[in-house]
């Protein structure tokens, strides 16, 4: 359901325009009331939790903090989290590009329905997302007995974690690319082909450069979600320490064992990841809408 | 009509084929497992699984708290969107960037952080404790967590519409003698309304399925502060696969309905404002 | 290079965009495909380019069947209506694109590419924008760059889709003249699509008039303007007065009145439409005159050599609308006929062109 986060949007700075215009300017007390109430709400619900993560992480000192991060189970959780993201992001990237190419550059019946289906994982509860793989690959599931016979573990093992991660991050890149590529149309590709470019040349030299910022944006969001996913992964993981724990699951285990400082230490890494994501996202938004140097003539 | 060699741009068959196969393998086939499994249950089994008092209590909490959280976000989200687009103030860019934090912050991290703040020894919990208000480890905690994760939706649906709104409308209203409040109420708000409703629906849909941020702060007391996704997990841990699946299918059906509603609302917004969301 | 179009049909869903179109484009000419929007002219252009595939029919380029050839193999230069410039590339790179994507063996050296692009930039008189991006150019500049890009691959034929459609009136006029001059220099067979008759009449060597997926008439601008072959051609090109009625001997009966026409092979009683250009329409000051359709003068414009008289039909309003007429007469006639606003007069055609009144195409004038 992160449809909005995923919207690739121009946000030019219009506030000063509104403030300069007498018809759209609000009186000072309205302005400060709105800002005051808005910022209070923002602080209580967003800022304080973010600060709390770091404060709690260092409550027992830097020693405990770093000890919690280099502990073997923590390191193994970090490795698994990176692995899950490293598999699911590229797969969803290939899917996103391929789906956007088919949908934006060609006409075929049922296109809007396909777009809706691609959005589906956003509206499915993460817990249900985990459950469906248990039903397919679990011991009681469709392929469970067969997998068991051949000694292949999917559920309560790394493959299950990767699958659940792919599911919850499935639409991120596709839904960045589809509207943008649809808006861009086929003209530039047709021009390239008419100038003698091959299909692949057209794709690499015309299509990809035109969508690179949207692509990067999708990858950033997809990666953040892949590394942070909790509910879906929790269902299929089995919580085996040092083996099937991702960072968010490791946070949960530490927390439930009342090792609060350690839990917040690992959580602070994830919070840092979130901040980096926001910085990159803001940068990409800024880059993709920055006018090319020089003045507009037309 | 589908003759591949009749198309000027290459790769249609390949890209659509891969898209459909991948979509089926990752999403459609596994999701269908829920309904296939549910369909093997007898009616009585199904009813006793999805209509047990503890489960019904969880629906009430999940949907009630989600609705309330989305409503809170509709009000304050509109306020924030207005402040961010219409006023200049120091730190505005940073606030704007941080609005998306709930999208980027892993839910488990949000869960323990909110618990730390709203527990009775936490920064806010300690302030409310003397007033007899308890937030963490009860239904109010659920509301707080769901408000947190839904916060960006309304802001991010309303903000672009507000930015694109030409000043002419308000200028016209002013020239016709309307006060600022009248201009807002009669000109600006009706334009924003579809986007606001879309943001509300998105926040609601997200909250209904939320798990990670809630379980730490909710206390998870059966019949009181247990959300539906947790019921599914609990049933799974007791190896009650049928029960878990039955409840999941209820949630899925509701998700699909919400998806339809949201698609409709987005189409409405697009028609009203001439822009796609 | 010659272009032959043989029996091309193309349907989109239930819409017949092209209906069995056959055409021959002579070598080296600048041809306009003219018609109202939705008439199929752009589709025809795209079919010739290979950007669209016809349901039936063949395209023959330079005597060789190109129907199954890919757009890349046809060596046509296509200029898109909205230019389709690659927005992430500079003007220079846009023009160089077609050369850079060639297989290594055929690709010119970097030095040759540079020289060629610069030559083209000079040709379109835009050398100074080489390092700009398309978004920094005006519409007219973009159009010229799009043309330079298409020319870079040395196409055998140049196809332009509404080349001036997105430009404002002044730039349009300039670019039109420029395109004509450029064509006279290069002599590359060119086809351009337009819905603007003035543009077609002014720029092209030959006009193909298209309507509802079919060719109505082919001819030089002079032929098209002076001898329209069909009712559609008559009403689409230039301003014209239109009279609907039935044939009655040597006359067309319009309501209670009648107009004499010269020649034709119509049955008595056949429904027809008669056309008369403003300068071929006469005003008879005597409203009792037997020949002519009665009208009253609304306005008299122009006091110079030519006066334009606007009139409105006297009889019943047809379909709720009064019919308007326009007549051009020597300025001196206004005086000699004693015309004034509000006066009742009769109109008749000096050279009335009469066509069967349907969407048919029989001609007799």
UniProtKB/TrEMBL annotation, chain A:
It holds the Pfam family BPD_transp_1. The complex is composed of two ATP-binding proteins (CysA), two transmembrane proteins (CysT and CysW) and a solute-binding protein (CysP). SUPFAM superfamilies: MetI-like. One of its GO terms (molecular function) is ABC-type sulfate transporter activity. One of its GO terms (cellular component) is plasma membrane. The keyword Amino-acid biosynthesis does not apply. PROSITE patterns: ABC_TM1 (PS50928). It is found in: Cell inner membrane. InterPro entries: CysW_permease, MetI-like, MetI-like_sf, Sulph_transpt2. PANTHER family: SULFATE TRANSPORT SYSTEM PERMEASE PROTEIN (PTHR30406), SULFATE TRANSPORT SYSTEM PERMEASE PROTEIN CYSW (PTHR30406:SF1). Part of the ABC transporter complex CysAWTP (TC 3.A.1.6.1) involved in sulfate/thiosulfate import. Probably responsible for the translocation of the substrate across the membrane. This is Sulfate transport system permease protein CysW. It is a multi-pass membrane protein. NCBIfam families: 3a0106s02, permease_CysW. The keyword Ligase does not apply. Keywords: Cell inner membrane, Cell membrane, Membrane, Sulfate transport, Transmembrane, Transmembrane helix, Transport. It comes from Hyphomicrobium facile. Its main location: membrane. Residues 78-281 form the ABC transmembrane type-1 domain. The chain crosses the membrane at residues 32-55, 75-101, 113-134, 154-174, 214-240, 260-280.
Automatic annotation (TrEMBL), chain B:
Its main location: membrane. Keywords: Membrane, Sulfate transport, Transmembrane, Transmembrane helix, Transport. PROSITE patterns: ABC_TM1. Pfam families: BPD_transp_1. The keyword Membrane applies. InterPro entries: CysT_permease (IPR011865), MetI-like (IPR000515), MetI-like_sf (IPR035906), Sulph_transpt2 (IPR005667). It is a multi-pass membrane protein. The chain crosses the membrane at residues 12-36, 63-85, 97-119, 187-205, 211-232, 244-265. It is found in: Cell membrane. Residues 59-262 form the ABC transmembrane type-1 domain. Part of the ABC transporter complex CysAWTP (TC 3.A.1.6.1) involved in sulfate/thiosulfate import. Probably responsible for the translocation of the substrate across the membrane. Belongs to the binding-protein-dependent transport system permease family. CysTW subfamily. This is Sulfate transport system permease protein CysT. It comes from Hyphomicrobium facile.
Automatic annotation (TrEMBL), chain C:
Transmembrane segments: none annotated. Residues 3-237 form the ABC transporter domain. SUPFAM superfamilies: MOP-like, P-loop containing nucleoside triphosphate hydrolases. It holds the Pfam family TOBE_3. GO terms for cellular component: ATP-binding cassette (ABC) transporter complex. Coiled coil: none annotated. It comes from the Bacteria. Keywords: ATP-binding, Cell membrane, Membrane, Nucleotide-binding, Sulfate transport, Translocase, Transport. One of its GO terms (molecular function) is ATP binding. NCBIfam families: 3a0106s01. Belongs to the ABC transporter superfamily. This is Sulfate transport system ATP-binding protein.
